[in-house]
Design brief:
The protein has one domain: 434 Repressor (Amino-terminal Domain) (Orthogonal Bundle). 77% of the residues lie in helices and 0% in strands. The protein is built from 5 helices and no strands. Helix 2 (15-21) packs across helix 3.
Length: 91
């Protein structure tokens, strides 16, 4: 789980609550967490302000790419494991 996702869960419980605070959509928050999209400079400023600096601009350029890559690699490994499991059942 990324630091951004953890912050949302710890302080706002849901992506919806966080989205309302920064005037964004739930789908945008979800895309940022999954690494499908990158927040606008305006949203980065709002997140930085709302989190009191815990999730600042450098997060998005330094940590976020690593968080997303690790999450995607873990998801890929899980899918490969499921695929191997299904193949064993078929054989």
């Amino acid at each position: 789980m990324s630091r951004f996702e953890t912050y949302i869960k710890d302080h706002y419980q849901t992506q919806k609550n966080f989205a309302l605070k920064i005037d964004s959509s739930i789908s945008a928050i979800s895309k940022w967490i999954r690494g499908v999209a990158f927040p606008s400079p305006e949203h980065i400023r709002k997140i930085w302000s709302l989190t009191k600096g815990e999730i600042g601009p450098m997060y998005w350029y330094v940590e976020w790419p690593s968080d997303v890559r690790l999450k995607n690699e873990s998801h890929k490994l899980l899918l490969e494991k499921k695929s191997r499991s299904r193949n064993r059942i078929r054989n």
